[in-house]
Amino acid sequence: METKSCLIRLERVSKLYRMNDIVVPALRDLSLTIVQGQLVAIMGSSGSGKSTLMNIIGCLDRPTTGRYLLAGNQVSNLERNALAVIRNRFLGFVFQSFNLLPRASVIENVQLPMLYAGVSARERLRRAGDALIRVGLTDRFEHRPNQLSGGQQQRVAIARAIVMNPKLVLADEPTGNLDSKTSGEIMTLIQNLSLSGITVVLVTHEPNVAKYASRRIVLQDGQLHSDTCPGSGVFSALTSRSADTQEAS
Amino acid sequence: MNLSHTLRIAFETLMRNKLRSFLTLLGVVIGVFAVIAMVAAGDGARERVQQLFASMGSNILVIVPGSAVQGGVTEGVGTLPTLTWEDLKSIRTDIPTVKLAAALLQVPAHVQSVGHNWATSINGTSSSYFTIRNWPIAKGTYFTESDLSGRSKVALLGETVARQLFGPERTPIGEIVRINNVSFRVIGILSAKGQSARGQDNDDALFVPETTFQSFIQGGTEKHIQGTILVSATSGEATGRAQRQITEVLRARHHLRNNKEDDFSIRNLKDIAQTVSAAVTALSLLLAAIAAISLLVGGIGIMNIMLVSVTERTREVGIRMAVGAKTTHILAQFLVESSVLSAMGGIVGTILGVATTQLLAHHLGWSIPIRLDVIAVAVAFSALVGVGFGLYPARKASLLDPIEALRYE
Fold first, then answer.
1. What does the pLDDT look like over A102-130, one tens digit per residue?
2. A54, A235, B286, B387: which has the highest count of C-beta atoms within 10 A?
3. ipTM at complex level
């Protein structure tokens, strides 16, 4: 494995929350490496720290201690506007509740990240159209999100997540608000993203969803509980170790 | 981020809550309207005061003979007759800023009618004097040219004199009054002018032609004027210039060297007019300040509604931040929204303010000019209010924690 393909590297990351006078650790000394193109499921019971981990990987939050390297660049000490640029250029988000702008049309929602990247209006329209077709939507571009079904809304959200050609897509319970049939469609779509080279980090508590992932990480009390690759556990261990070795040498 | 998108979002957000936006707008509308209306009313009032003063004679200069101060000792003004009839003629013809000039000769005397007598001041002058003082005649006529050249024994009575000598009911035109045993025919009664600024009764006076005065009251014509010269300048603004020019002409005519003091003094009423004008200005400033406070209240209304808007759209802010909006993007979005609100309020308020003042001016017959500077200041101030009072809510939005904002229900 080349160093380049090691996309996410967490080194002894801790996150502490201060509630009144009590310090509550959400993550404790967590180290983790994710290589490019992987579809990783992060699982764990509520309070296990998976949301915190997701926020840190997604550059929405910063670790209290430890380092986070994204594509070889340390991002754990960047200020909020620099993190905004990284989210804009390198990351895409898919949420359980879709999080589309209710008053904006489908095509406008997909254009939103490009708006902050300063892409020209023509280019925005073209790329937003392409992204929508890529997630399987060919019409209803001018509809409002509430005129679409849940599955369609999540497709719009995925189109928005990939429109900037990100390296990494973070999906937080992407099927939590969908029925099982639609869930399957959405997960197949997410799997295809991963196959096309985009790294996907999936946060879920449903084994049915996690089965689409090539690697499963289970957190407990802010620490790694297990890290397995269904079907090829050796592969996962190898990749992650080889990346470590590469980094160290 | 592009402006057209930001503007569109702002308009859409405002249109979504029509009543709320309208009420917020109203606060600014009333503020801007009040500022424009108050300043206009102040302007109108000041102009009116100036007009009234002009009618009282803000452009009047009084030239008094004799030096006011000689070597530190103040002499009685007018004790030295230094002004000549030739001086008067020169002032009248040689100085372009002088509209009219008239001599005023004055002695106290007893006036007698049949059965009454009254001590008053006897004045010799020409009919220009009444024009200068803007003193209309109530009954009868002024002196004519032939009265002046022919030394006619005719008299104009002030209202008080007429009442004292003939009673309030009678119209004494054509009646005879006697001054120092000389008979004068009454040809006119002046309209009542009331008290002067010094509390003297303007109407307690009797006027005869200056030539008649010289011959029959003063006793013999003289080269010097035994009194003062009244001058009206062509306009209120020209008064100061007229005063300087008269000083020059008189000093030249009196052959005064540079180191010698004037042997006359010139007084004007403009100082009083300026004082009153300044008082009106202060008052209109006070009105404008009160109006500005209402604009401030309008601004607080904007701040209030923007804070509500930020809270309502916390999740939207979170989404925008997640896809890469920087703090400046969020800040700009909310600032544009509050600025659009206040700018619209400013424009509507300006239109209302100008329309109302012009309507009012039309009805009152005042002239209230449309002051572009005031409009510019009012609109700029309202835009500033939008930015100023929008800043805190916008900043609050831009500093939201994206995680918290995304979780907000």
1. 888 999 999 999 989 988 889 999 999 99
2. A54
3. 0.89
